[in-house]
């Protein structure tokens, strides 16, 4: 059973601080949505609103079209995995997983059967009688996941699921959680500040910034077509140049700009003197060249002090690119340049002011 | 133990520290040792150093009807008082975790702890005026039990609160999202975590109540004496070695109770540590 989630214009104030300022979000049944944002952007609060652990001032939360904002957490049929996993320390792994079924007064035969199924799902079949304290971090997380899924909830909520794991385990568990989510086919909302994690697991990523959702889109669209400069520089490295309708402008023509061009480092190339032509280009001085395995990362400073980052293929002959040498960068893939036009709303506001 | 980094780093400083520690423990235990030795004197009055050795004052205390009655009364008062104190203290500590407002939490916590500093005589006089008004409460131990319980509530409250504060604050929210109603959360999540702390609170409460004399002076019915009251009157009438024998016995009881408890809880923490070490290697 998997539900469609709809959040409509939710406002939450904690003390005097407006944590959520009118957030709306929709998720189709079975999709994996990640709330991605810096700390303090309100993403965990939004998760708590969905779980029913946070009262909202205004707005609606709908599960399959039904208002649930007045429903207490225990009646929402949500499965939550907390950052700390919050396993009951005095219960065995099996009892932890069986807890939601016990709360629902299911018979013990069914409890045992579901515990077995759930532990098999998360690959911990032999661990029924172990104490949570005797498990490793990754195992604890999987127990928490099994417990959250045991009562067949309509939606799964993950609060910073990888925060307590070390880096290697993190990458494994991202794949593992995605597998389990797809196998169960459950609508899932996760919270993270790690963009790689968000990209690996999610169908949709919702970028949060200071209590609002800035953009909700697939990971690729977010990267290729960010709606504003914040999203562009939040996800991956981005070079922002002044632009008009036609594309990026030369740096000395910034005054005519009507928008911002986003050019990713991998779309920039170093131009040889005979390649110049009349294409768009940026002259600059090499500040740093570093080899990072799958690429060279070249950092160039323009005459106006702007820092530009360029990725070069790992087999590039980089001997000429010593710090201090002058280079000219061009765009290798003009069709992939994304221009953020200043929104009409923004202009209107400026006029009004 | 032979050459730990701590010992090496402390160096010669450790000699004065050791001496001060020894002196301090002497100050703690010397009076007690004096009391114990006077209890085995052969004379009929308290004298130090004791003359000869006999257990006659012990047999005296243990066979004397008055002492035995007083012991039984104290046992009853302490048992009932402890149960009430554990109940109230635990409920208070649990209720505190359910409060959202931080200001309210810290106020109520203070209000629960402050009674430790209020002199028992204040309770005694207050409850005494109540007993004068209510005939139902005269000629029985109910009011004394209640009063003693009130004195012990803060100890239980502090113990249980510390137990609750060690728990992951996400446990209750997670239980509620898993469908648990509040009675189930209290029964299956809160209580199992604080049983040990409730026990510790009970041990302290019992020790506090068993030793308490001021309330007994005011609130025991005529002709009934608690053990501390009996000791007090005995000390006023004659300084017989029976008094020190009784206090030795009471002290032994306290040592057994508290010592037994700390042994028990040490074993528990050792087990927990073993478990987490196993987890680290797994």
Name of the level-1 CATH class of the largest domain in chain B: Mainly Alpha
* Fourth CATH level, the homologous superfamily of the largest domain in chain B: MetI-like
By secondary-structure content and strand pairing, the structural class of chain A works out as alpha+beta
Largest sheet data of chain B: none
The CATH superfamily of the largest domain in chain A is known as P-loop containing nucleotide triphosphate hydrolases
The total tally of domains of chain A equals: 2
Mean residue pLDDT of chain A: 88
Find the count of extended strands of chain B (DSSP E, 2+ residues): 0
Q: If you had to describe this structure to a student in words, what would you say it looks like?
A:
The complex is a heterodimer of chains A (353) and B (282). Chain A is an alpha+beta fold and 353 residues long. Chain A is built from nine helices and 19 strands. In chain A, the strands form four sheets. Chain A has a six-stranded mixed sheet with strand order 6-7-8-3-9-10, with helices on both faces. A five-stranded antiparallel sheet of chain A has the order 14-18-15-16-17, with no helix packed on it. Chain A is elongated and about 80 Å long. The N and C termini of chain A lie far apart (51 Å). In chain A, 40% of the residues are buried. Chain B has twelve helices and no strands. In chain B, helix 4 crosses helix 7 and helix 6 packs across helix 7. Chain B is globular, with a radius of gyration of 24 Å. Chain B starts with a helix and ends with a helix. Chains A and B meet through strand 6 and helix 2 of A and helix 8, helix 9 and helix 12 of B. Chain A: Pfam families: ABC_tran, TOBE_2. Chain A: Keywords: ATP-binding, Nucleotide-binding, Transport.
Summarize the helices and strands and which ones pair or pack:
The complex is a heterodimer of chains A (353) and B (282).
Chain A: E1 5-14, E2 17-27, E3 32-37, H1 43-51, E4 58-63, E5 66-67, E6 78-81, H2 93-103, H3 108-121, H4 137-150, E7 155-159, H5 167-184, E8 187-192, H6 195-201, E9 204-209, E10 212-217, H7 219-224, H8 229-234, E11 239-244, E12 247-248, E13 259-263, E14 268-270, E15 281-291, E16 296-301, E17 307-312, E18 326-331, E19 338-341, H9 344-352
Parallel strand pairs in A: 3-8, 3-9, 6-7, 7-8
Antiparallel strand pairs in A: 1-2, 1-4, 4-5, 9-10, 11-12, 11-13, 13-19, 14-18, 15-16, 15-18, 16-17
Helix pairs in contact in A: 2-3, 2-4, 3-4
Chain B: H1 5-10, H2 14-38, H3 56-63, H4 65-97, H5 102-113, H6 120-133, H7 142-166, H8 171-177, H9 182-211, H10 214-219, H11 227-237, H12 241-281
Transmembrane segments (chain B): 12-34, 77-96, 108-129, 141-164, 198-223, 243-264
Membrane topology (chain B): Multi-pass membrane protein
Subcellular location (chain B): Cell inner membrane; Cell membrane
